Input
Amino acid sequence: MNDIISGLRVTAATMAICVAGYTAVILGFAQVVTPATANGSLILGDDGTARGSRLIAQGFTAPGYVWPRPSAVAYDAAGAGGSNLSPANPLLAERARALIAAYGGNTTPIPADLVTASGAGLDPHISRAGALFQAPRVAAARDVAPAAVRAIIDRLAERPGGAFTPDRIVNVLELNIALDAELARSSDTE
Amino acid sequence: MDHVLVIGLIIGGTALLSLPLGAWMKLAMDPASGGATRWTTLFARIGGTCEEQGWKRYLVAMLIFNAIMFTVTFAILALQHWLPLNPDGKGSLGPTLVFNTAASFTTNTNLQHYSGEVSMSYLSQLAGMMWLQFVSAATGIAALAALARGIAGRATLGNFLVDVQRASFLVLLPVALVVAVLMVLMGVPMTLQGSAVVTTLEGVTQTIARGPVAAFLTIKQLGTNGGGFFGPNATHPLENPSFWTNGLAMIAIMLIPMACVWMFGGILRRRKHAAVIFAVMTLFILVKITGSVSFETAPTPAFADLPVAADVGNLEGKELRFGATGGPLWAVLTTSTSNGSVGAMHDSLNPLTGLMPMAGMWLNATFGGVGVGMINMFLYIVVAVFVAGMMVGRTPEYLGHRIEAKEVRLAVLALFAHAVLILGGTALFAATSLGQSTVQETGAHGFSEILYEFTSAAANNGSGFEGLGDGTWAWNIATGVVMLLGRFLPIILPLAIVGSLMTKRRAAESVGTLGVEDATFGIMLGITIVIFGALTFLPAAALGPIAEHFARP
Output
């Protein structure tokens, strides 16, 4: 009996300090020092409404936009997940075949990230190669020279871990916002 | 080259950080005997108890506190739809899911048969799960401190509720505050606002779940808990936004399990012995990492016949921002330490890569969970000392304690129980519709999914081959029971061994005593781990990942 009462007292103490106290300290710090990222790294449009999160992929389909990696959950940011398909599963190749067709039946090899789903299905990035691969389509849809699209891609491409990660990646939402801001939008991007 | 650099910095850096932390943990958990410190007095007053406990009393206090942990969280989860801090209006949860989740977080496993952002209110996440992430980890640290005191020859093991407060308030909380602040500065969300609803550039409405992620994920990693705030855990961009948060998280995963070895050595006053154990554990982890990274940076065979560039490794289930090393390195760290958070989807790993996490959980002692990993290693040490003693024809002794039939029987029973829980459960579910109807893929990979799930539950890990449809009542109950046995047997039996050792007179160490501070001992320990830990599971591995590897076209 004494063990139970003592246990309950320690329960109350750990709840108060490790749950309420700890959460309050970190919450207060985050909301004061880094309010933008603390609330989900939202990107606001000109009218002040949220157009997305810098960290969350959007399911772009218009030819004038760069497309993200495929998502096993249709870019559902309220129910994220991966395909969990094993490498031996024929569904992987099937999905890749469909995507290759959607990308116009390429003859040059398509970068692997464009045909593989990420763990959460929300990967905000694609490889620089994957973005350049789409530059001709985006340029045609926007009626501009592919070089203009490539220049924007190269400007935004970054190494996520500096010297530790040699391969450059690019944030798709930020790239598409830059494309809209700098290059004319033809009607089919609307 | 960048692989070696990343691995070296993460493992080497964490090993260096673990030295001062281990020294602090020794001071915090086991202040110099004699006058009680201010903290000890305070904790004794909070708990209303300061009696010195023998191994049985210590265990009873631990089990009662863990029963309270289970009950409180069970109640919060079961009632979440009526409780506050639920801005997105999450509904009620099924009873077997509530049982499974409460068992999972009480046992430091964090196996999740739900998806956090879909099912759980903020109160359930914070006061249910996150609370257990503190106190279940503290239970492990307390148990290790008690074990070490017994081996060190003290008359008693200490007081459980004082120990659990020391571990919570003096070890976990300060480290968590530092790491959580760094996570916030690196862009992890921390808010009590409900989901954000946005209109995308193409005019589609997207609902973005968020929440008090930074506080949660920090203790999730530090306490080798591993339960994600979001369903896909640390692959979710809001739970792990960048290469740098990924690196910090990997350090947090390894830090306290490593420091526990130094704390053990500190309480024993045997730092060289601890260094040998540390070296053996590190060697095992490096072997697994080498395997994992090299198997996983091979292109996936799925696209062999398609016009897909084959210049990168297997990207299915992986995030680009972590770089090529991030996924496979994390997979080893999280399973070597009983953590179980995932930085890539394990089900989509190449077959031989998937074997590495399984091997980590089969051994479960390199470095193992917070506190309990070192306790598991103690079991291997008992067996190794016994075998070594038999080989040279001397009475086996460990630090002056005579290891006799009774102690070895208990140690083998604990190691055997781990194997029986995994292989018995896998056999039952693989042979019946209980498991067969839930696998995503037939054949060897389906078997691997079942094997992985029981391995993860028994090792108190919590990761999974998530293609498995594990939300059924059968899986909820079976893994719930396996988690409870897999948690408490490897704490109860080692403490019983120590209880038995404490009743015997200690022999003075002589030249004939087996040295525990040299390479010979390290090699002996390594061989014991391979034979008892790994070979037990070789047949199962052959039926699962190995068969899958060779079955490829």
Q: What stands out?
A: The longest helix of chain A spans residues 2-33. The beta strands of chain A are 42-44, 50-53, 125-127, 169-171.
